[in-house]
Amino acid sequence: MQKSNSGNVFEFILEHVNIVDLISNYIQVERAGKNYKALCPFHNEKTASFIVSEEKQLYHCFGCGAAGNAINFVMSYENLDYIDAVEFLADKYNLDISGFSGKNDRNNTGQLTKYYDILKDAAIYYYKNLRQNESALNYLNRRGISYETIKKFGLGFSNDAWRNLLDKLKNKYSISELEAVGLCLPNKDGTSHYDRFRNRIMFPIINPKGKIVGFGGRVMDDSLPKYLNSPETDVFNKSRTLYGLNLAKNVLNQKKQLIIAEGYMDVITLHTNGFENAVATLGTALTSDHARLMKRYADEVVLCYDSDFAGQKAALRSLDILHGIIEKVKVVVLGENLDPDDFLKKYGSEAFKEKVETALTGTEFKLNHLKQGYNLNDESSKIEFLSKAVSVISEIENNFEKNLHIERLGELLGVNTEMIAQEVFKGQYKKEIKYGFNDKNKSVQIPKVSHEKKKYLENQLIAYYIHNHQTVSDTQKKLIQSFHFSHEMQPVFDYIFDYFKTKETFSKQDIIENADLDISKMLIEVLDDYSGDTDEIDIELIMHNIIIISLDDEIETLKLKLKDASNAQELFKVIQDKMRLKQDLTMKMRHRKFKN
């Protein structure tokens, strides 16, 4: 029997998992100096900015900011919570963590394994019930669900009884464990428990790892609530779970497209009709966690909600959630207030396929929905619509797409497209370039030097030193090298100084790949602030300011020592010398500024 271990299970996992080995199972990594580099799996990029440090057992992306250890990587890539990520790594590397115990069940990963076992046993029980219940089988048959589909989705049935499941499982599991996974509830006075799901078609909710995490139950009549879902538990998070993803992920090899529906029956009907890339949220609105989960599997998401008012509002909300996470998003408009299940039964799979192929882009859907609320024959209404439409178009990142919608909006309203373009592009608008299509970055505005912020001065100095290393004089280099930088920036400058001992030209990629992660992060921050535009930096002025600040620090330190010093007269002379030096430098700076 495994002995209980009071240590930290997370530290145990990190000690036994090499982050380079782990990440190389997901993406291609290659050695780059003391680190490893790769294309970031969390955002689209062409140049590798994802760095893995074997020494520190950490990763960091200088493009999107993703960072962390092995557990964090699995959480982000597999869309798991912290506990599930630990269990995932333990399974993957054959690490026995059953002896670890925590202050509560959530910290006991051995207990989570039992929860999965309970839910699996419950699913088998419900499945057997369905096979023996004629009315439930007839209901599913009327809905067009075959025996093969029942097996594929593991559908079941909960009897119309108060304690059937409890009586079945109570000898194997405790009541508290059954309650913890949402299968039973206590009565009002807490003296007994009863089954949560009664007289319902049961839909097991299965995560991408193939483990049952909860259930959805649907009535077969008009009673309410129509659907009842498992509550949030230690193994079930509605905001991070998609129904049907365990099946859909297996068909995304050629076309990485997911269809998002609203309910269990929609997903099952879509799969039955050949659209096996369909998934659904679970009684909750689409969340950013859902979006990140979908990004792992798909490049394109097609929203296919009910065509009623509520469904279209949900589509609009989902577009906002998906923006910036999923690059390509489209919306299917079925019409006639139909949901996917109804549409497929009425028109068939070919008609639905055409709907998907001609789905609207997110912007098209937003503009079409917006247009419905305005009478475009009325001038004041047209102006209000135009103002809001311009706001929608302005959110588009791709300038080609912006121009396309500017043209369409101009044709629709009979408005000069140049006027629309001016409103869409604002400060980027160029009359000589059609509709302001100008990708040239604005020059970075470097603010006036602050005499109080040493770090800001150091950032400017380092940025200048990097971008103008070949033109910095030997005298300036020696002076800069003699500076006492702040505790945070000293290792950064030391790295840059050593870098130019062997390199003549600067490479941002070299720094990212070869520097310590902490140094790399600070360097990238400095470089991003100035983006190569250091023409406005007065290097002499910067150095003078840094020297003056250093002198101020030294003078204050000496004054404190002066009170109790046995050599007070000698210290006082040193202070006077430093004050005169500061005064001389200040006068030089004023003279320089006056000349300029």
Keywords:
596 residues; alpha+beta; DNA Primase, Chain A; DNA primase DNAg catalytic core, N-terminal domain; Dna Topoisomerase Vi A Subunit, Chain: A, domain 2; five-stranded mixed β-sheet; 10% strand; disordered N terminus; DNA primase; metal-binding
How would you describe what is shown here?
The chain has 596 residues and is an alpha+beta fold. Helix content is 50%, strand content 10%. The chain contains 26 helices and 16 strands. The strands form 4 sheets. A 5-stranded antiparallel sheet has the order 1-2-3-4-5. Strands 13-12-14-15-16 form a 5-stranded mixed sheet. Strands 6-9-10-11 form a 4-stranded antiparallel sheet, covered by helices on one side. β4 and β5 (67-68) form a beta hairpin. α17 (379-394) crosses α19 (417-425), α18 packs across α19 (417-425) and α25 runs antiparallel to α26. It is globular. 32% of the residues are buried.
Beta-strand percent range: 5-15%
Give the oligomer, counting copies of the same chain as homo and different chains as hetero: single chain
- What's the number of extended β-strand segments? 16
- Kindly state the mean pLDDT as a whole number? 83
Low-pLDDT runs of 5+ residues are 1-6, 102-107, 439-452
The strand line-up of the biggest sheet is: 1-2-3-4-5
Domain Toprim: 256-337
Family: Belongs to the DnaG primase family.
Zinc finger (CHC2-type): 40-64
Function: RNA polymerase that catalyzes the synthesis of short RNA molecules used as primers for DNA polymerase during DNA replication.
